[in-house]
Specification:
Rossmann fold, six-stranded parallel beta sheet, alpha/beta, 42% helix, 14 helices, 17% strand, disordered C terminus, 2 domains
Length: 338
């Protein structure tokens, strides 16, 4: 008999979908998609948890709190994945539950309720202890698994292009370094700067007002179009103030992009010695680092791709995720070998 897992999430991010696919390989998975602070149909939570063997939640917030609380009442084991907004404390970027208020209390309570916590970087593990008071030994690190859509190093000719990917909204102008990215373009007029990402508010109008002619704003693109940009870009830029992992950086490195990032958050864990770090977040300094990256040898592209393949393979996450789930499964559950 397969275990029954209630999969609680509030978004359709690729990494969330990948986890669901992994769990579906050995369990019967039921989705509970929740985006509201207070559940309109509380019975949906009650019924979902009651009929599950394990509750699996993404992010410590309102969406997971109710499921974790009911799981506690039913003494059902629960897993909570944390890392990102739920652990961050960045008042200057208007980002993070740990800034205070009700969000801080809700996220911390959710973390305390979970049977097992895990996160996607050692930086986030440390952040959980520093910002949320969760002892690091309670938080297991399981890196994201990055699917390789290419199989081999892409053969498209690399253009003199610097790429960054992220939702365009006011908080991300600082947190993701989108403003700094656009400002840097004016320092390198012979380099095309491409910002890929959904336009979520009027911050796009501000970015356009400060952009030089070599900046392209694509808006949201298809998965196929994004892969094309990864393959064509020479440089991937992530001059963030905070990163719980840096998934787009890893995806770009798989395509042979040379990463130019700040040393913020988990970015050094992802980039390692396969990219360039900018320690001074000023347009002129970022421009110098991008120019150095553009003039580097092809071997660093191959090294960047190899790092992602060796450190963040999807199979490794799959193995560790399944082992984690089985370690907390009730003893009476019998899981058939696949």
């Amino acid at each position: 008999m397969q275990p029954k897992i209630l999969f609680v999430h509030s978004g359709n991010e690729t990494f969330v979908k990948l986890d669901r696919e992994i769990l579906s390989e050995f369990a019967e998975v039921t989705d509970l998609y929740a985006r509201h602070k207070f559940p309109v149909g509380f019975g949906q939570y009650w019924h979902g948890v009651r009929n599950a063997d394990i509750v699996f939640c993404w992010f410590a917030s309102w969406n997971s709190l109710w499921a974790l609380l009911i799981a506690k009442l039913f003494t059902k084991p629960s897993v909570l994945v944390i890392g990102g907004y739920d652990l961050a404390d960045l008042p200057e970027s208007d980002y993070g539950h740990q800034r205070g208020g009700l969000g801080k209390g809700v996220s911390r309570f959710a973390m305390k309720l979970a049977t097992l916590l895990f996160t996607n970087s050692f930086y986030s593990q440390k952040e959980a202890e520093q910002n949320a008071g969760i002892p690091s030994q309670r938080v297991k690190v399981i890196y994201h698994g990055i699917p390789d859509p290419y199989g081999v190093m892409p053969t498209k000719t690399k253009e003199r292009m610097a790429l960054t990917v992220g939702k365009v909204d006011w908080p991300n102008l600082k947190r993701k370094g989108l403003e700094l990215f656009v400002q840097t373009a004016g320092q390198l007029p012979d380099v095309q700067f491409v910002l890929v990402g959904e336009w979520a508010d009027k911050s796009i109008e501000y970015l356009r007002s400060i952009a030089s002619e070599n900046v392209v704003f694509t808006g949201r693109v298809s998965d196929e179009e994004l892969l094309d940009y990864y393959q064509r870009a020479s440089i991937y830029v992530q001059v963030s103030q905070h990163e719980g992992f840096g998934l787009s950086v890893a995806e770009a490195m798989l395509a042979g992009c040379i990463p130019v990032t700040t040393p913020a958050g988990s970015l050094p864990e992802v980039v390692g010695d396969c990219g360039f770090f900018c320690n001074i977040p000023e347009p002129s300094e970022v421009a110098i680092v991008i120019e150095a990256a553009l003039n580097s040898s092809r071997s660093i592209r191959e090294k960047a791709r190899a790092r992602i393949l060796s450190h963040f393979p999807l199979e490794k996450r799959k193995k560790e995720l399944i082992e984690t789930i089985l370690s907390i499964s009730p003893q009476e559950l019998h899981i058939h070998d696949s």
